[in-house]
């Protein structure tokens, strides 16, 4: 493999990088020039193992030729169809395939281009639904501390990770936050904590404080991923569901990370046995090959919104130029075929115990503050540098890259989420590199 010729300083400056310390990165760039399977290769031609499936989206491994070929064929046949008042076969086929994976009764899928767009779309669906039912007074939304729901204006408004919101003060009003579910006493709990279900009762308190009839929806990640993998306590999601049912509040699961097999089943809703009213998804829907997201809604939500509009009128005034793009749909169909043909959801479930055992082997390291995990995703949290939260995690992420492993960090927590094609040897390599890197600081 050829080593990449260094770019000029000006070339690096041209891109304003997302969620990146731009000045620090451009002083010492970390570039990926090739990827295949569970491997990446940096600008020096050196291999890295991908410990986070890209950004939790490359579930079937990198470089899947089936997806590339499907996109190529689609682009030659039909590169673009306007999604407003028109359509193409691929979008309907993909929606049908996604609906087959969803819990009943969720049989209606609206396509977007990212998880962030999925959240904004879900917010609008909620508002349109309550308006159609004559309950426009439901203007309050409930989110959760430490929540991440993307970076569009709706998701920023729901953000419970303070740094994602503090620079952007003009956001949606009427958002209140449930307490997050992590407790120091639960440290090193594998799977769902035994205690903490009562934290869901915050929602009942909000009903009593603000009036249940003013609350439109509750948005939660079944597993809070981007904040560092907070697994819900036993009974917590069930209690949220019961409170929502009691007061006519919609329950929205943000499954952008957990969707498409990360917990061993198609969706975490099925893993935890709790069916929400709306599910947002993205990431693994196309194996990361092309940007795409979607929102699925219960049949009653779709039917209420569409049924409230006059005949021949647009029922839901929302959409994007690239909603259901033909190439993205081709990628999605090819991806779902791979998942089914190779039994990758089942492989993720089968690998999970070995993966979690490997993660928990790090417990002996003094700098490790907590380990959390479920399915094929885990958080490895280290003690912060005194008075400098996030500094140690930032340094470890950089060292991991040069030690031959990519893992996504949020603050002082590594989020480890190998692809579903990873082997036990791959898991050992990922965890071994994490150990070696942690021991070096």
From TrEMBL:
Descriptive protein name: Beta-alanine--pyruvate transaminase
Top-level lineage group: Bacteria
Native source organism of the sequence: Amaricoccus macauensis
EC number in record: 2.6.1.18
GO molecular function: beta-alanine:pyruvate transaminase activity; pyridoxal phosphate binding
Family: Belongs to the class-III pyridoxal-phosphate-dependent aminotransferase family.
First-tier enzyme category under EC: transferase
Coiled-coil region list: none
Record keywords: Aminotransferase, Pyridoxal phosphate, Pyruvate, Transferase
Short name of any one Pfam family annotated for the protein: Aminotran_3
SUPFAM superfamilies (UniProt xref): PLP-dependent transferases
Cofactor(s) listed: pyridoxal 5'-phosphate
InterPro entries: Aminotrans_3, Aminotrans_3_PPA_site, PyrdxlP-dep_Trfase, PyrdxlP-dep_Trfase_major, PyrdxlP-dep_Trfase_small
């Amino acid at each position: 493999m050829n080593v990449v010729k260094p770019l000029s300083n000006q070339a690096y400056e041209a891109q304003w990088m997302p969620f990146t310390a731009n000045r620090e990165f451009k002083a010492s760039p970390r570039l990926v020039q090739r990827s295949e399977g569970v491997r990446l290769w940096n600008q020096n031609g050196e291999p890295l193992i991908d410990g986070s499936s890209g950004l939790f989206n490359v579930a079937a491994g990198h470089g899947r030729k089936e997806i590339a070929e499907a996109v190529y064929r689609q682009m030659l046949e039909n590169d673009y169809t306007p999604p407003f008042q028109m359509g193409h076969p691929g979008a309907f086929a993909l929606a049908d395939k996604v609906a087959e994976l969803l819990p009943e009764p969720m049989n209606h899928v609206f396509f977007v281009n990212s998880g962030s767009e999925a959240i904004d779309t879900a917010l609008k669906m909620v508002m349109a639904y309550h308006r159609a039912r004559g309950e426009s007074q439901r203007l309050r939304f409930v989110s959760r501390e430490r929540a991440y729901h993307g970076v569009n204006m709706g998701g920023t408004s729901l953000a419970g990770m303070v740094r994602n919101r503090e620079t952007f003060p003009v956001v949606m009003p009427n958002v209140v936050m449930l307490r997050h579910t992590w407790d120091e006493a639960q440290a090193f709990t594998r799977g769902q904590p035994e205690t903490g279900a009562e934290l869901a009762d915050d929602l009942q308190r909000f009903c009593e404080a603000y009036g249940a009839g003013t609350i439109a929806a509750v948005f939660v990640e079944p597993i809070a991923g981007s904040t560092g993998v907070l697994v819900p306590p036993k009974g917590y999601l069930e209690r949220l569901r019961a409170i929502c049912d009691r007061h006519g509040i919609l329950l929205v699961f943000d499954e952008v990370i957990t969707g498409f097999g990360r917990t061993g089943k198609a969706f975490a809703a099925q893993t935890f046995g709790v069916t929400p009213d709306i599910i947002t998804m993205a990431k693994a829907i196309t194996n990361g090959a092309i940007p795409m997201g979607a929102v699925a809604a219960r049949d009653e939500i779709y039917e209420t919104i569409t049924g409230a509009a006059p005949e021949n009128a647009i029922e839901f005034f929302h959409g994007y130029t690239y909603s259901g793009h033909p190439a993205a749909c081709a990628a999605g169909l090819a991806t779902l075929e791979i998942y089914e043909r190779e039994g990758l959801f089942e492989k993720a479930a089968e690998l999970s115990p070995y993966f979690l055992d490997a993660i928990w082997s790090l417990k002996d390291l003094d700098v490790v503050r907590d380990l959390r995990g479920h399915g094929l995703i885990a958080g490895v949290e280290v003690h912060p540098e005194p008075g400098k939260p996030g500094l140690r995690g930032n340094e470890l992420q950089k060292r991991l890259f040069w030690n031959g492993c990519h893992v996504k960090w949020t603050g002082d927590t590594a989020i480890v989420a190998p692809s579903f094609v990873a082997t036990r040897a791959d898991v050992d390599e990922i965890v071994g590199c994490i150990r070696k890197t942690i021991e070096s600081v």
